[in-house]
Amino acid sequence: LALEGGSIEGVGGGTRLTPSEFLLPPNRNGQRTQAEFEDSLRRPFHVQQVLWLDQGYWAGDDTDSHIDTLARLCPNDTIVYVQCNDEQDEHYDALRQMEEQLKTFRTLSGAPYRLLPLPMADAVVEDGERLPATYANFLILNGAVLYPTYAQPDNDRRAAEVLQRAFPGYEIVGIDCRALICQHGSLHCVTMQYPEGVLD
């Protein structure tokens, strides 16, 4: 299986959230169907259900819609996701469709998820290119959640408030990620695995 750090999401239990645009194209995983892919995940990850996110788009993203830019599973049957309310923004249609799909997802017990919308960061542009500034690219630690900030006080604060609701009892800590998104990733991306020897 071709998996990357931002391609599959879970917080324990038997549910995984993943973008179909990333995992299903033949350039990554051959001609596997959704059902075959789920079978491949079942044993190593103890998966009981896979929530396939078919919608979602992020300008400047070079990952084919990694889940950690769009929507994240959180404790207590909660999903946080990026919401776009500006009809003139290029993300509006795709993120609205994503939001509608999230409303159809059900937990293993058959209940709807608690959905908490994260704010959309104001456009960050460098050399004429919009960069993938997203508040969904956070990192969960023991007792803390580190989340990206973009020197946008209102949006940064609102994102922290949403994450505090999603992670009660956790410390929510903002990290300035303006330098990181110049490389088309943010906080969760940069904290993924390093190949052996890369820090030697």
Q: Major sheet: order of its strands? A: 3-4-5
Helix/strand class: alpha/beta
Instruction: Determine Rg (CA atoms, Å).
Output: 16 Å
Report helical residue fraction.
25-40%
Question: Poorly predicted ranges (pLDDT <50, ≥5 residues)?
Answer: none
Bin the strand percentage. 15-25%
Question: How many beta strands in the DSSP annotation?
Answer: 10
Give the helices and strands as they follow along the chain. EHHHEEEHEEEEEHEH
Shape: globular
Sheet with the most strands, sense and barrel status:
3 strands, mixed
Average predicted local confidence, pLDDT? 83
Straight-line distance between termini: 29 Å
Number of helix segments?
A: 6
Key features of this structure:
alpha/beta; 3-stranded mixed sheet; single chain; 10 strands; 200 residues
Walk me through this protein's architecture.
The protein has 200 residues and is α/β, with parallel strands linked by helices. The chain is 26% helix and 22% strand.
Chain-wise SSE layout:
Elements: E1 15-19, H1 20-23, H2 26-29, H3 34-45, E2 49-53, E3 71-74, E4 78-82, H4 92-104, E5 114-118, E6 125-126, E7 129-130, E8 139-141, E9 144-149, H5 153-166, E10 171-176, H6 187-190
Parallel strand pairs: 1-2, 4-5, 9-10
Antiparallel strand pairs: 3-4, 6-7, 8-9
Short recap of the structure:
The chain is an alpha/beta fold and 200 residues long. The protein contains six helices and ten strands. Helices cover 26% and strands 22% of the residues.
